Amino acid sequence: SLWHSPELLSDIQDGYSVSGHLLVCFSSGYFIHDSLDIIFNHQSRSSWEYLVHHAMAISAFVSLIITGRFLVAAILLLLVEVSNIFLTVRMLLKMSNVPSPALYEANKYINLVMYFAFRLAPQAYLTWYFLRYVELQGQGAFLTTNLLLLDAMILMYFSRLLRSDFFPSLRKGSAGRDVDGEKFLID
């Protein structure tokens, strides 16, 4: 959507494209499906963070779909999916106990760069934009609150990633488990 319509970036609040609208609609459907899958497969307790994230995304995206405003913000937030590729590769490498640590090490650094480029940077830019330019009433207040909560979640996930891959001595407990026995979401 951004590739075909780069002019969208000049109007985060009211920019519109059919492909962007369809992307947000499709992504909303994905979040709804994934939430139902988590619930119906009795994974709610271990995946509650995903459910909170999905509920926030669904509510924000539905408000965007209905009003037609802030579509570009949603498209920018969906850039996060690029970094998910490397998080998923990381998880698969950990689960498969690949005998070559070089592959994991390479992905570890690529994952860190992608996390900055496609998670932290767009999120920081949108938070700055919303706090500076968007009215803090109605939909603007709702979306700003969602952004701030997502900021907290993304930073929490980032700290877990750093602890796990770059500072394992700082991890709580042992074997990737928190003090209360819950497995790190990012592990």
Automatic annotation (TrEMBL):
Designated name of the protein: TLCD1 protein
Location in the cell: Membrane
Span of the signal peptide: none
Keyword set, alphabetical order: Membrane, Transmembrane, Transmembrane helix
Domain TLC: from-to ranges: 1-170
Primary site of residence: membrane
Gene: Tlcd1
UniProt GO BP: membrane assembly; phospholipid homeostasis; plasma membrane organization; regulation of membrane lipid distribution
Listed Pfam families: TRAM_LAG1_CLN8 (PF03798)
Transmembrane segments: 72-93, 113-131, 143-162
Protein topology in the membrane: Multi-pass membrane protein
Organism superkingdom: Eukaryota
GO cellular component, one term: plasma membrane
Keyword Nucleus in record: no
